[in-house]
Amino acid sequence: MASLYRRKNGIQAPPRSRWQHPALTSDIPLLRAAAERARQLGEANGWSPSTTRCTIDGLAVLLDGRPGRERVTLTEIRARTSRHTSAPRVAEVLAGLGLTEDDTVPAIRAWIGRRTAQMPPGFAAAVRDWLLLLLDGDARTRPRSATTIYVYCTAVEPPIGRWSASYGHLREVTADDIRAGLEELRGHPLCTAISAVRSLFRFAKKRGLIFANPARRLSAAEPEPSLLPMTDDEVRAVEQVITLPGQRLIVALAAVHAARWEAIQALAQRNVLRGVAASSWSTR
Description:
By secondary structure, this protein is mostly helical. The chain is built from 14 helices and 2 strands.
């Protein structure tokens, strides 16, 4: 009724007081600065009022009673913010004030910990320290990629499983044991395993974990190529057997133009080979 009376008589309604989060006027300077920072980010990035309010709520939980400018870890942000609060937005506000500390463990480090924890005790610590050295590098070793860590760890796991059946520590492994553990491998898997085993024992010798390096003389010849080029006689023999135009085109692409099977397969899936073969057959 009051609003109807004001409209009939041309009286403007008094301006509504805009609600503000209590943290914006807090007695704690750090909380007040964080709340103001959240408000500014919300206006700049189009956050909804509820999102801004929940973000400031999370900041209040984390900063109320915190001494000085003590940093907040990402783990604490995730653990203490409610499910209605966006932890990334809270972290963004605190990062802008220089108050965050990244204590999360990279995925590759967590993977190394899990994988080596499954190894026998006499081998696990050495393998873990070796992989971490490969990951981080040192003054004389460049850091390796996560892919190399995965490949090397996977390569040494089978022989370590065999060695642990007879020995309780890496220092007991002999050169004959190493060769026996790799005798089933051929080609590129063998070369990879030898590189990984040599790297592991070289690390163990430098750290004093073993008395002598049994993998020092370990070597492998270059793997033979899995595919050999066809001779002219082999190409002619194949041409005599095949009869369909598409098959002849595939042989020409592979033998004459050295097309890889992935490219030929892609052409076949798009029916390109069928159309080219049909047109070439019709011109005969």
